[in-house]
Fold this sequence. Notes:
Helix content: 10-25%
Order of helices and strands: HEEEHEEEHHHEHEHEEHHEEEEEEEEEE
CATH class of the largest domain: Alpha Beta
CATH architecture of the largest domain: 3-Layer(aba) Sandwich
CATH superfamily of the largest domain: P-loop containing nucleotide triphosphate hydrolases
Number of helices: 9
Largest sheet: 6 strands, mixed
Strand content: 25-35%
Low-confidence stretches: 1-7
Number of domains: 2
Structural class: alpha+beta
Amino acid sequence: MSAAADLSDAPRLEVRGLTRSYGGVAVVDDVSLSVKPGQVTCLLGPSGCGKSTTLRMIAGVDRQDAGAVLVDGREVSGPVHHTPPEERGIGLMFQDFALFPHLTVAQNVGFGLRGLPRSEVAARVREFLGKVGMGRFEGQYPHQLSGGEQQRVALARALAPRPRIMLMDEPFSGLDDRLRDGIRDETLDVLAAENTAVLLVTHEPAEAMRMADEIALMRDGRIVQRGSPYNIYNAPVDREAAGFFSDINVLEGRVQGALSETPFGQFLAPGQPDGTPVDIVFRPQHLRIDFDRDGRGPHPTPETGTPARGVVQRARFMGSESLVEFRMDFDGSILTAKVPSVFLPKPGMALWLMIRRDRCFVFPRKAG
């Protein structure tokens, strides 16, 4: 492999074992990750899991208790050395845009370009306002702009110094839903054109799936799983990870001979000792429905296993799909099916249900 190939494959941002505690409680606990040029990594997790604290330590506005931050292989913050935020070559975008209300659009974008010749500042301002479609707004003030326009100005201001890394903390959460998708896509296009390494914080799985090349799922201050959106969705590390990305159904079972017996048939539980209680997890779209034609139900198949009967409790049309809740005959539990288009059976109707066995996850049940 050539030296150029080695360089392009090297991480632009590397985080090693970042830890931060407040009052003896670890808010961020041994977090490590890396982001390459042109890559978008999403720190995803619920509020309070340590995402924003991690971002602040990488930016340099908060200091870690342990661990290190490296930019292009050079340590910018570690046990001894701590480079100020403005010297790290890192751009920041936040939820509230943080535009200066007393400065024009052009002055906001040029604010971080101090030290450059005036002609170069003007050229950069025109260049990046043009890239985000805001060139004709140079002389206006933030209060004269819509939320989407302010977002574009904030992006231009963050990009104007040509940072090697962009940190984004819930930058789209304040936007109207109708604007959000378009502005997210425009932002990604501009960042990709600049070959910027992007670390984005969000609590919305759909946003992470839409934007990320890699997702780092956080919980209680730790990264519990990292991977591509496809892999992290289709191979969750545990029940909580599966449930964070979508609604889930759960069957309870117990292992005997590497199998767990359920009313839907046996499920493989390799590597689990006999007697282990397990949760069999599957998403509503993988629950199949058949009508109770003769009271016996459809025949079992290797793909779907044994059918089990449920009684409709409620059906709701959601626009592109329908959600149907069933009370199961075998234990009275509630399972939910997601059906494309319109399917609204009446409450009390008995239907047969089957599970896509290749879409089930078997996890040891956690205490509590």
